[in-house]
Amino acid sequence: MSKNPLCVMVGPAPEAQGGMASVIQVYAESGLFSNGQVRLLPSFSGGSKLYKLITATKALCSYASLLIRGKGEVLHVHVASDASFWRKAMFIWLAVLWRRKIIFHLHSGGFIRFIEALPAWKRYCALATIRHSDQLLCLSTPAATWLRQIAPLVPLRFWPNPIPAHLFESTNTETQAAQRAPLLLYLGALLPAKGVAELLQAFSTLFAKNPDARLIMAGNGPALAQLQAQAVTLGVSEQVSFPGWIGPDEKNAWLRRARVVALASHTEAQPMVLLEAMACGAAVVSTSVGGVPDLIKHEVHGLLAPAHDAAAFATQLLRAWEDAALHQRLVQAARTHVAENHHALQVRNALLNLYMTLADGQPGNMRR
Q1: Which one of 21, 147, 186, 231 is CB 3.0 to 4.6 Å from 16, fit for a cystine?
Q2: Do the beta carbons of residue 38 and residue 7 sit within 8 Å?
Q3: Which phi and psi (to 5°) does residue 8 adopt?
Q4: What is the pLDDT of residue 364?
Q5: pLDDT tens digits for 23-69?
Q6: H or E stretch covering 79
Q7: Residue 247: helix, strand or coil by DSSP?
């Protein structure tokens, strides 16, 4: 009997919103699912609660069917906090029952707080689920440290998020820097935890010194009305646009136009938006939280500031905006860094090698 698919990947649909969906979309574009070795089962999508429930149930039933037919030697689950974890837990325990190899791929920057806030019995179940993995993949030093503490017997690897090959195309960074619009760009959910209020405050400082500056805050979320009111209070409402969630083509167009891409989050893992900005030749300014310092060395690949500190963030924005030599140096180093470590084809091939290694019974957690 054919074992194809060799691996079953479970995560959000590629067209869904959010960082995990963006990662899976890049894998799809790189051809990971094209030859039958890897089957994607979307367990989450946009739409109503009923539609989301149907999507998750359909994926779980499809996975059970594959197991019954002897397929899928490896299960690869993409995991975030809250409902994302509990959905994937069902797949993990099915894989345990069928003695499949399990890759637990942790994305969420807030996952540790999520687990620690659970009631004792739920936390016990959650940790037992994680410990049944054969390979842990994570995106940041804080996540790695915690995972090694709670699952010391399970092999762990840092794993790079993949960046599409087309983002690296035809880039003369010196020419692009001179041609880029006076545009500050934010891409992501409009949530307080994303530091959007601090970012808007910092932009008002930037605008006071650079009246041509404009800010695009592209995304959806409950903080929209508050941000619009804050922009009025700060006197920058005419300079700030809120276009809502934008698709991949429009996003890439903005990334190629923006002078600086900013992320003032309170917690992050390995933000796709920063990787995409670095590939596209925009300078990046971020808070030094979660996995960001693993991705960006301050004053080498970008500029970092403490979280919750709008004044410090504004200082770094001004440096990236006004110092042309610094801007150019950061952009060149960042593009080299992501091209060497995050190119989609390179990451895809490494993932296929990991699947084959686990399926062949090479070193992993042999606790079953």
Answers
A1: 21
A2: yes
A3: -110, 120
A4: 42
A5: 999 999 999 999 999 999 999 988 888 999 999 999 999 999 999 99
A6: strand 74-79
A7: coil
Q: Give yes or no for a contact between 92 and 22, defined as CB atoms under 8 angstroms apart.
A: no
Rounded to whole angstroms, the Cα distance separating 157 from 116 reads 22
Residue 160 is classified by DSSP as P
Q: Which residue has the tokens 């890439």?
A: 252
- Report pLDDT digits (tens) over 169-203: 755 555 465 678 999 999 999 999 999 999 999 99
Q: How many CB atoms lie within 10 A of CB 331?
A: 27
Residue entry with tokens 């060149």: 332
Residue 291 CB partners (closer than 8 Å, separation 6+): 109, 139, 140, 141, 142, 143, 268, 269, 270, 271
CB of 320 closer than 8 Å to CB of 286: no
Taking the C-alpha atoms of residue 189 and residue 220, their distance in angstroms, rounded to an integer, is 5
**Which is it for strands 7-12 and 74-79: parallel, antiparallel or unpaired?**
parallel
- DSSP letter string, 87-114: HHHHHHHHHHHTT-EEEEEE--TTHHHH
Q: Which region holds residue 36: left if phi is over 0, alpha if psi is between -120 and 50, else beta?
A: left
Give which of 207, 181, 164, 198 is closest to 285, Cα–Cα. Answer: 198
Beta strands in 140-282 (DSSP E): 156-158, 183-187, 214-218, 240-241, 260-263
